[in-house]
């Protein structure tokens, strides 16, 4: 069945004006919120349909903190992407925070504070401790002074912790690599690319209110680059489905974007599922589930 739909997927890609397959990308740094504020949920069973309230962030002090440029929204907020841990992998979420020039400190403070209650319910967690600070940004390299015990927990845990920091800080245009004092070699996103799950979802966000069609974006490294998505109502019934091809796949990571139309007579809780169809048996694999608030759709 996969071979029958692949030509259709290619036609849909051309119709959408997407770029042809190319060497895989790890995904661009965020440049502000998408039509649905972007985030991702990990593979696993969805949490309760109504997510818990998010933690209210507090902007940190800015005195003496290295700064990085980041876009500020008209309402005076700053959209920051945070990379949390789930089952040994990296998954992104976003925060709309009070604007500050000390964006690196803001991002690390939020990263250490951890996921919101709704995000925690999906299994997201953070390994980054409070007190992790950037001491210098020069030549595209951010140098950190990690607190005592930063590398505790074994090599795999320490590497995932560092990956959280690197992927979070390198969203800013002035940071391309991160060095951990006192003498570590600077590393970038490519050095931790193996910690990404097969499918990363950057929009919509956990708890977002979405309408039909709902736009789903992210990156993927899946068979024949084919990414599928469906909308489920509160009872788990499928009310909309679509698929597309990422810009690269089957051994390389590419970006994807697709719109999923659904029918629903009234607003209410639901779930967006993004997944790969198994080439072996046609089952859904590498599933990412995002609980959302669905508007009525026709």
UniProtKB/TrEMBL annotation:
<dbReference type="InterPro" id="IPR019606">
    <property type="entry name" value="GerMN"/>
</dbReference>
<feature type="compositionally biased region" description="Low complexity">
    <location>
        <begin position="24"/>
        <end position="42"/>
    </location>
</feature>
<feature type="region of interest" description="Disordered">
    <location>
        <begin position="24"/>
        <end position="75"/>
    </location>
</feature>
<dbReference type="Pfam" id="PF10646">
    <property type="entry name" value="Germane"/>
</dbReference>
<dbReference type="Pfam" id="PF10648">
    <property type="entry name" value="Gmad2"/>
</dbReference>
<keyword id="KW-0732">Signal</keyword>
<protein>
    <submittedName>
        <fullName>Gmad2 immunoglobulin-like domain-containing protein</fullName>
    </submittedName>
</protein>
<feature type="domain" description="GerMN">
    <location>
        <begin position="104"/>
        <end position="187"/>
    </location>
</feature>
<feature type="compositionally biased region" description="Pro residues">
    <location>
        <begin position="43"/>
        <end position="54"/>
    </location>
</feature>
<feature type="compositionally biased region" description="Low complexity">
    <location>
        <begin position="55"/>
        <end position="72"/>
    </location>
</feature>
<dbReference type="InterPro" id="IPR018911">
    <property type="entry name" value="Gmad2_Ig-like_dom"/>
</dbReference>
<feature type="signal peptide">
    <location>
        <begin position="1"/>
        <end position="21"/>
    </location>
</feature>
């Amino acid at each position: 069945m996969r071979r029958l739909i692949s030509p259709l997927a290619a036609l849909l890609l051309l119709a959408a004006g997407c770029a042809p397959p190319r060497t895989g990308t790890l995904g661009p740094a965020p440049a502000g919120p998408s039509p649905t504020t972007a985030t991702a949920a990990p593979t696993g069973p969805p949490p309760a349909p109504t997510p818990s309230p998010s933690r209210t962030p507090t902007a940190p002090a800015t005195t003496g903190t290295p700064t990085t440029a980041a876009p500020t929204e008209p309402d005076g907020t700053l959209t920051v992407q945070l990379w949390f841990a789930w089952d040994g992998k990296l998954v992104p979420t976003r925060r709309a925070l009070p604007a500050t020039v000390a964006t690196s400190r803001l991002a690390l403070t939020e990263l250490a504070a951890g996921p919101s209650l709704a995000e925690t319910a999906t299994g997201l967690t953070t390994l980054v401790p409070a007190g992790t600070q950037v001491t210098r940004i020069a030549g595209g390299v951010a140098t950190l002074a990690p607190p005592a015990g930063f590398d505790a927990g074994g090599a795999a845990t320490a590497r995932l912790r560092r990956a959280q920091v690197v992927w979070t800080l390198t969203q800013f245009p002035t940071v391309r690599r991160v060095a951990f004092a006192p003498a570590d070699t600077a590393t970038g996103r490519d050095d931790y690319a193996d910690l990404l799950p097969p499918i990363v979802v950057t929009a919509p966000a956990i708890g977002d209110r979405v309408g039909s069609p709902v736009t789903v974006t992210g990156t993927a490294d899946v068979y024949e680059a084919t990414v599928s998505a469906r909308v489920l109502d509160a009872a788990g019934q499928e009310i909309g489905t679509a698929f597309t091809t990422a810009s690269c796949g089957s051994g390389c990571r590419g970006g994807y974007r697709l719109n999923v139309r659904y029918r629903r007579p009234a607003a209410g809780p639901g779930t967006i599922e993004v997944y790969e169809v198994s080439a072996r048996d046609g089952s859904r694999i590498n599933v990412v589930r995002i609980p959302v608030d669905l508007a009525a759709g026709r």
